[in-house]
Specification:
binds alpha-D-glucopyranuronic acid; carboxylic ester hydrolase activity; 4-O-methyl-glucuronoyl methylesterase-like domain-containing protein
Length: 403
């Protein structure tokens, strides 16, 4: 090869390598996993209104700032959460009084909601412990994994929803599958709740799948409220990962949920977007264009322009207790950024005289913070919802419900 050509080739290879450092194989920037490369950022002030008023008490938080933040999340991130429907009906399709070897009663309930000529059915699996005083507190899981994880026959028992363990601890346990509310793919996420709200589909701030899952959680709450066996004032909502994004959003919107659990929820869940550690706003919008409002895409590679960050989502849950988890190997979901979100939400809990005193730095691995309105653990291991996570959820609920 001629010398000139060789030099050109070397330069060309170096150029391609340099590009590869900034961009991964597909679209979008390389994912950062190094703390030293987290950019400097300023979080939007949770206690300062858009017109510059400083919030000093819970009355002005509730009257002014809270509704403002809720609307910012609707308009810029998750889309609106429509509430109106023409009717709702609850039908027990199957009842097994001696499920789990007699420990519990199984109810398979169909929740039908209609508006004009359209309807949606959410199927709920519910176990209520037998021989206990009622009404009884309940854990509801938004199931975003295989339906077998919440198998009503209990032929399959998964750590993802350890129903027996929850029953043994004196709680009712329930689950619905996200696909009933919005199938989790770009092709047909509209085939569920969105059929009731076609106007959402055209709107820049229209809800999509995550909003639909949150909406469905609220309809399950409608069912709990009229079921005398369930203490609907002590209902815990649990979600993992994408389900954990939905549990936070549902908890922010629907103040009937007493406790919110968000497991490994990562980007647009508990993690601060501005850290750009692990998954980013651009990455999530490219990979999952059917999750968030169209308007969210304008923050791709533009996190600092967001009028919110995720600590403000957690703040919307105040004063109700919230529990966030991470897993040590789940850097994609930014464990540190999830903890910092919780920490930055604390000032809103303080307006209510909150009992939390979170340490500035995340706790050690497997050292749960339970006796606090803001609970947290970072479990050793991978991205998953496990029995360890649930054990801590139960401890947190026991603490807050004095059980
Ligand atoms: C993907 C996605 C995450 C999501 C996760 C899950 O990894 O990028 O945002 O939380 O799936 O739901 O398991």
């Amino acid at each position: 090869m001629r010398k000139g050509l060789r030099i050109c080739l070397v330069f060309f290879i170096l150029f391609v390598k340099a590009q590869a450092q900034d961009y991964d194989k597909s679209e979008g920037p390389v994912i950062n996993y190094e703390e030293s490369k987290v950019p400097d950022y300023n979080l939007p002030k949770v206690l300062e209104t858009l017109d510059g008023d400083i919030i000093r008490n819970k009355a002005s938080w509730e009257k002014k700032r809270r509704p403002e933040i809720l609307k910012l999340f609707e308009d810029n991130v998750y889309g609106q959460l429509p509430e109106a429907y023409d009717g709702i009906n609850f039908k027990v399709k199957k009842k097994v009084p001696d499920a789990m070897y007699g420990k519990a009663t199984l109810k398979e309930v169909e929740i039908s909601v209609w508006k004009e000529s359209d309807s949606v059915n959410i199927r709920l699996t519910l176990f209520i412990p037998n021989n206990v005083e009622r009404p009884i507190p309940v854990f509801l899981l938004i199931n975003n994994r295989g339906e077998y994880n919440t198998d009503p026959t209990r032929f399959i028992r998964s750590q993802f929803w350890p129903a027996e363990m929850i029953i043994d601890n004196g709680y009712a346990v329930a689950a619905f599958h996200v696909s009933d509310a919005a199938p989790d793919n770009i092709e047909n996420y509209q085939d569920g709740v969105l059929q009731l709200y076609p106007e959402q589909l055209g709107a820049n701030n229209g809800m999509k799948a995550i909003g639909s899952w949150a909406w469905a959680a609220s309809r399950v709450m409608d069912y709990f409220e009229q079921n005398k066996e369930i203490d609907s004032e002590k209902a815990s909502l649990v979600g993992h990962s994408r389900g954990g994004k939905a549990s936070l959003w549902a908890g922010a919107q629907d103040q009937r949920f007493a406790l919110i659990f968000s497991n490994c929820s990562g980007n647009t869940g508990a993690a601060l977007s501005r850290r750009m550690f692990g998954e980013t706003v651009k990455r999530i919008n490219i990979s999952f264009p059917h999750w968030f409002a169209d308007s969210y895409a304008k923050y791709n590679d533009n996190e600092n322009a967001l009028p919110v960050d995720q600590h403000m989502l957690i703040s919307l849950i105040a004063p109700r207790p919230v529990y966030i988890t991470s897993a040590s190997e789940d850097l994609w979901a930014d464990p540190k950024g999830s903890y910092l979100s919780l920490l930055h939400a604390e000032k809103v809990y303080d307006l209510y005289g909150g009992n939390s005193a979170l340490p500035r730095n995340p706790p050690e691995l497997d050292s749960p913070i339970i006796a606090s309105n803001l609970g947290y653990h970072n479990r050793e291991g991978i991205h998953n919802l496990t029995a360890y996570d649930w054990k801590n959820f139960i401890k947190f609920a026991n603490y807050h419900f004095d059980r």
